[in-house]
């Protein structure tokens, strides 16, 4: 059983809460084009779990902005998420504020 993913856009900030996994990311994936237009920052601190599918979506959101506007940066990266980023050697790809 998985916890739902919730998100809230406040100005140019996207706040993610819950689990960002292969099983929960579909609603955010379907809304990504609308959401990505207005954000510059994604806060991931309240994510309780991220799997490789969730990490792939975060990278996709960031890479999409390279084409269309200044890049998105992330904040609130937990030890667990950073471990996943490190496992795939993505430290130089993910823009984040420590």
TrEMBL record:
Signal peptide: none annotated. Coiled coil: none annotated. It comes from the Bacteria. NCBIfam families: mlaB_1. This is Intermembrane phospholipid transport system binding protein MlaB. It comes from Candidatus Erwinia haradaeae.
